[in-house]
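Data availability (excerpt). All sequences and predicted token strings are deposited with the supplementary files. A representative entry, L-threonine dehydratase catabolic TdcB, is shown inline so that the format can be inspected without opening the archive.
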Amino acid sequence: MTFRATSRHPSLILDDVRGAQKMLSGVARVTALEGSRHLTELVGAPVHLKCENLQRTGSFKLRGAYVRISGLTPVERAAGVVAASAGNHAQGVALASSLLGVRSTVFMPVGAPLPKVAATQEYGAEVRLHGQVVDETLAAAQRYAEETGAVFIHPFDHPDIIAGQGTVGLEILEQCPEVRTVVVGLGGGGLVAGIAVAVKALRPDIRIVGVQAEGAASYPPSLAAGHPVSLGDPVTMADGIKVGRPGDVPFAVIQELVDEVRTVTEDELSSALLLCLERAKLVVEPAGASPVAALLSDPKAFRGPVVAVLSGGNVDPLLMQRVLRHGMSAAGRYLSLRLRLTDRPGALAALLAALTVADANVLDISHVRTDPRLGLTEVEVDLHLETKGPRHCEEVEEALRAAGYRVIG
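Structure token line:
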């Protein structure tokens, strides 16, 4: 699904991003730009991956956080900073504060993944767990700021944050001067807005495409209304772009400079994460894989050369396991079947032999003998198989039927 932006004057200029780039010299890595042969063949033009998943702290967030905290006055620095985040922003603020000698407190949801909590603490922040959802955590952080005088560091709704994120755009132009389309994941809007400010100032011909998860797409209705609109309950596995309302500052920039906003499904996000892992050998979180998901969903819609920004790689191992399984299922590489067999010795062994001939890998198998729908000598078998793709799934089912098995579901 595609939406077009309308016009509004942006609030940042190229000099802001260039100033941020000087500030970040020696702090943020100039991340690699890697070619993707698979995506290049799919799109029919060169596709490059901007690997912000390999940035310090595992995402682009360090850039904006460092620029924002660098701009504080001595009095503000002495008061410390506070932030709220489930992951990437938390780690960016923690490391930036440590590098600048500023005390930081980070509020995280009670259910935040333990690796992200531990990483935030190791970067030097005091972590406080509060609330079940990010909105509750955010409110707690804002109350803390009011009570203590600590400066609240917003994850995307501030010009300094956007300027810092915009340095990704300057690097893209330096690394791939022939680029014609830049595709970026879109949540609150800080990264897309910053890249758009940098890229459009120097190369207005380049197309900027933002990508949102379908269940957390606040920008399409906001662009249609001409102002930020809040979603009731955003739902997506991509927590890095799971934002219920666009930021006021990035919205103004995106309305002016971003050419298109697309949405992708959870299946497409899963498939994209799997592709990044298998084909590019890159660990990418669902939000970071959203530009790849857009390329997979409509590959001929993008004029090349294309740069897809992999915004982060901080994925919880348990979520990675679920997403990979979901991605394999979406790619037709899982097959679930239910069969009825005669309950006699050797029946299961014969079934497994038939599956071996069909070259299907059995992941899980279970028997049901007590269902009233079954005959006295029948047993029902649930199979979960790993296959090589949709065509192989069909071949497995055909082989089972040819061997005399009745597939009932």
